[in-house]
Amino acid sequence: MTRMKTTMRTILAALLVVGTSLADESATLAKVRDVHPRLFLNAARLDKLRTAITNTHAEIWKEVRDQADQLLQRGAPKYREQDGHSGAEQLYQREVGNAMPCFAMAWKLTGDRKYLDAAKSWALASCNFPTWGLGKTDGMDLAAGHQLFGLGIVYDWCHDDLDAESLKTIRSTIIRRGDAMYLAAAAGKTWWQRSYLQNHLWVNICGLSVAGFATFDEYPPATNWVALALSKFKTTMDMLGPDGASHEGVGYWEYGAENMQKFMFLARDLLGENLYDHEWWRNTAGYPLYLGLPRNVWTRRNCVVDLADAPRGHWYGPEYLLRNLAHEFHDGHAQWLAQQIDDANVDSPSARWLNLIWFDPSVKPRAPSDLPTMKHFSDIGIVSARTDWSGDESLVVFKCGPPLGHDATTKLKTDAGSGHVHPDANHFVVFGNGEWILRGSGYVPKLTALENSLVIDGKGQMGEGSMWFSGAAALAAKAHPRILRADSTPSVDHIAGDATEAYPKPSGLTRFVRHLIFVKPDVLIIADDIVVERARELDLFFHPERTVTRGDDGTFTGKSGKAAMRFDPLTPDGINVSIVSQTGSNPHGGAGYKMSAIRLRSESMHWQNAVALSWSPVTGTPARVKLKRDATAWHFSVGGSEVVLDWNEGDVKFNGAR
To answer: How many CB atoms within 10 Å of residue 399?
Structure first.
């Protein structure tokens, strides 16, 4: 009786929240009822794949099988209440879910029973874990999303090969865990159910949907899980902007895009729903391409720009994600980037098996040498500017946009997932001569003082102050900090942003326009125009990657293994310039942060300021920039060339050549 009441509540919640007919969903899935495998693989695809791994997919297959063998040596995981870093989330269990499809794929392609036994032992270990997260998190977040996905794949792919008792255990776990997550999400009892632009929603409902696809013919209410996922992902598609960029950074883009693409593939295959028909998906392969570091310096921990909370290395793939996009949109640049990442061995192998399914050898790789060196992601407000595509180029990345992008800010009434955003309008980073020159803050509490931007009377932009960005105030204000210019020529790039709307009204800010003038290949001029309604303490922060020292002439210099840098305050009169240390704890766990910054401080109502940043090989001498000012224009000389910034028009003119 209790079970029946729970099931009825589940069905009613689905009808109320999702508005999807169970009968319609069941009819759509009827073609694969009682057929296994049906998720990603079927009999025809398996036959083709067994041939492909002997030719076009041979190298990819070797990587997948090697991964399965390495996981095999580790043995089935043991339950741990605490993993030492993720607290109640028990995030080590994500890797348990990730490993299962790898074993199952190796079994389907080789028939070697050791892989079937491994898939079974890891699946049963997951089923026997007493918790998938602690307390309220148990079964409701990422540990559950990953394990539901893994169990669903094993149940489907190994359905005809596992013993009855193991199948029963896996099925009963899927039903118990799936019902619990579904009912909580449908009834609004999970924190992420309306986080339509955030990775937790995507991971969890993807896992739930795969569990539902795997068991719907044996447990009909599981179609509700699929219907919920479809409804949520359709809402996400409505909120994605057109430019293909992510507010969460490249690593989280990978995490989110993986789980969205997994569901999208199955939705088209099993539901006849095409969610790929969206400008965001057509453009999104350009996001990791333009935010990639010069490829000749790639290492596992240093290959992408670390905006927001994302790291400098890859978290999920992304070569299989790019290969799927290459196939969908006949995108040779995506195919090229996937191969470069694969060849450099800097990928993250969480779902490497997807390469076997998504690699389309008919799409030929195309190097980006035919692409512009500047890219403006106009919705999120990111500009990437590089000198060339040689693999040894300099790179400047600038950010000035609303937390969730212009499109979502216009549409939304409540925050749809800005927690990993930073309060960083008019922030920028620089990479040159194989090294980071000016850095981002990383995964730290959200404070504008930790970004390369402006703080007023010790306070920063809306949303700062805790470990997670709070987007409510910026959204309520419909704040639209924006890119004003993104102009590129062979010699000079000019980027300008207006971050005024990113600051709360009590700050008194009426203007904060920043100009970046990139005199290629190794000089960046930063010119700021700041106006407040009365004299206030204004701080501009700039965070070098390496330790710098201040010379007698007021400039700051530093060296690393490959690069030398120079930071020159060009308008020092009446301001205080110092090096400050910034330290703090990380409430999310792990080590605290320790950074140093060059801080420029002025107490004024109107502050026009310019600094010059230059870099060179470590054995060289960075270029020096000189400034001459007149009433409306500032003239910057670099060697034998001149750059003129017209403050009134916001234009930049370049005279000469470097």
So the answer is: 30
Which residue matches tokens 């500017």? 385
Would you tell me the crossing angle of helices 250-266 and 199-215 to the nearest 10 degrees? 30
Query: 464 pLDDT band (50/70/90 cuts)?
Result: very high
Q: Pairing state of beta strands 509-519 and 435-438? A: unpaired
- Asked whether residue 368 carries a pLDDT value surpassing 80, the answer given is yes
The residue type of 399 is K
276 in the same domain as 227: no
Per the domain annotation, does 653 fall within a domain? no
Q: Which domain holds residue 442?
A: 372-616
CATH number, domain of 215, equals 1.50.10.100
> pTM (2 decimals)?
0.95
Q: How far apart are CA 384 and CA 246, in angstroms?
A: 14
Name the least confident of 20-34, 96-110, 277-291, 322-336: 20-34
Cβ atoms of residues 186 and 10 within 8 Å: yes
Q: Can you spell out the DSSP letters for 144-181?
A: HHHHHHHHHHHHHHTTTTS-HHHHHHHHHHHHHHHHHH
By three-state DSSP, how is residue 257 classified? Answer: helix
Given this model, what pLDDT does residue 655 score? 87
Between CA 428 and CA 285, with CA 496 as vertex, the angle to 5 degrees is: 60
| 8 Å CB contact between 253 and 243 | no
Query: What residues does 408 pair with on adjacent strands?
Result: none
CA dihedral sign, ordered 325, 327, 329, 330: positive
Q: Are residues 442 and 554 both part of a single domain?
A: yes
For the segment 294-323, what is each residue's pLDDT rounded down to a tens digit? 999 999 999 999 999 999 999 999 999 999
Given 219, 239, 259, the domain boundary residue is 239
579 vs 255: CA distance, rounded Å: 36
